[in-house]
Specification:
two-stranded antiparallel sheet, single chain, 2 domains, mainly alpha, globular, 19 helices
Length: about 425
């Protein structure tokens, strides 16, 4: 026990093993939906769903454990939403096989890893102004809230106008989510230890009682490992795929910057300027994880902002990520049990965590428009575009332009000029 405590710095970070395990389980429960959603998305590319579920679990398990062991950071990883859709609807629907797509993902991870080893990724992250980093954390909080509202059924998209609107709140699903909001809010307000995890479990019981969730017919499923290693790297080297390749790199590069920043702030692991100890290792493991996802046939694996759920439960070290990874491995054999927890049960947790993460916006100086406006654009763009990288991009571009307009161009880090140009080109072409 003492060995674990020393290795993960439990005392230094004011945590213990039981807290870390509880936090890891909480993170897993908020992420478990990917075991179902990723196969549904990749099915459109001709990938067998059962094998894809196993691949998703294996890739998430390996990547999360690596993050915990080598970076000692409470950040779990799994197949990235948006990245999997890019693979299906841009690469595969563009006339290439899913094997080629996985090869492209594998190479993307290696390319980002090279940027990490060259110090480029860490330099970019450290050059982002503190105000934008605070806004990233707050923006991701809004992003989580947005996801939670949709998963709860509180918000829907009008099929005619294609605009968000208040949904009908008289369904069993919204009732479960509404009661769940009350339960988790009360538990958090009373500062009950493990309140979010307890809330998710109670919400799941409610979901079973109201017929929103069902117990599985079988609690054990024989895993299908056929996707692992089934990638086509030579096919991914075709010059015609260079545009897709760059797209993957940009999204991978900046998505994790946002997630790592937000989790670092929430866990109290970020300094005054937003610098996170060991960020090079965190970014390196994230890059390796992308390649692991491609190798396993699970699409690109990336950092999950749902890790904030575990941090809210007290997770402060890599043991949280390792615990999440272990549960992903177990889900290879017990996937039916993991999938019992419906989105309506975890949605209230995401909303409450989103509220907690809004604290970062209080650090923005609203009377300094050249910093406040970029911070605002960073924060608000994330939920409205459903993209962390877009939020980072809008923030960086507006930061550079407004600093120049205010005659303060010397205050802008040179890397920010380069990053702004890259984002402008990517927004124009991709």
């Amino acid at each position: 026990m003492q060995v674990l405590s020393n290795f993960f710095k439990f005392s230094e970070r004011n945590t213990d093993l039981s807290t870390e395990i509880r936090a890891g389980l909480t993170t897993f429960l908020t992420m478990a939906y990917i075991l179902f959603v990723n196969p549904m998305i990749l099915k459109a590319a001709g990938i067998p769903p059962d094998a894809c579920m196993v691949a998703t679990a294996v890739a998430a398990g390996i990547s999360s454990i690596l993050m915990g062991l080598f970076a000692n950071f409470p950040l779990a990883l799994a197949s990235g939403m948006g990245l999997n859709s890019m693979l299906v609807y841009i690469v595969v629907k563009g006339g290439y096989s899913w094997q080629v797509g996985m090869g492209l993902v594998f190479l993307d991870g290696l390319a980002v890893l090279l940027l990490v080893l060259l110090g480029v990724r860490e330099t970019v992250m450290n050059s982002i102004p503190a105000e934008i980093k605070h806004a990233i954390a707050a923006g991701i909080g809004l992003f989580l809230t947005f996801i939670g509202f949709f998963n709860a059924g509180f918000t829907a998209v009008n099929p005619i106008s294609m605009q968000p609107e208040a949904a009908t709140l008289n369904t069993a699903g919204t009732l479960v989510a509404g009661l769940g909001m009350i339960i988790i809010s009360v538990l958090v307000t009373l500062r009950i230890k493990g309140g979010i995890l307890i809330g998710i479990i109670l919400n799941t019981i409610l979901a079973l009682a109201f017929g929103v969730a069902k117990l599985p017919e079988h609690f054990f499923a024989a895993p299908d490992f056929s996707l692992i290693g089934a990638l086509d790297i030579p096919g991914a080297l075709k010059p015609s795929l260079i545009g897709f390749f760059i797209s993957f790199i940009i999204v991978d590069f900046f998505d994790t910057l946002g997630s790592a920043t937000a989790v670092g702030y929430q866990a109290g692991l970020a300094g005054k300027e937003g610098k996170i100890e060991g960020i090079g290792k965190i970014l390196g493991i994230d890059a390796i994880a992308a390649s692991i996802g491609g190798f396993c046939g699970a699409s690109s694996v990336t950092a999950y902002i749902e890790s904030a759920a575990g941090v809210s439960e007290g997770g402060r070290t890599g043991m949280t990520a390792i615990t999440t990874g272990v549960f992903f491995f177990l889900s290879v054999f017990f996937a039916p049990i993991a999938l019992v927890v419906p989105k309506e049960a975890t949605a209230p947790a995401l909303i409450i965590i989103g509220f907690m993460m809004m604290e970062g916006y209080s650090n923005i100086k609203f009377n300094e428009f050249e910093t406040a406006i970029p911070a605002f654009l960073t924060m608000i763009t994330m939920p409205f575009t459903y993209s962390i990288s877009h939020g980072v991009g809008y923030g960086i571009i507006s930061h550079v332009l407004l600093k120049m307009a205010a005659g303060k161009s010397r205050e802008v880090h040179p890397v920010m000029y380069v990053s702004a140009i890259i984002f402008i080109i990517s927004f124009a072409l991709l």
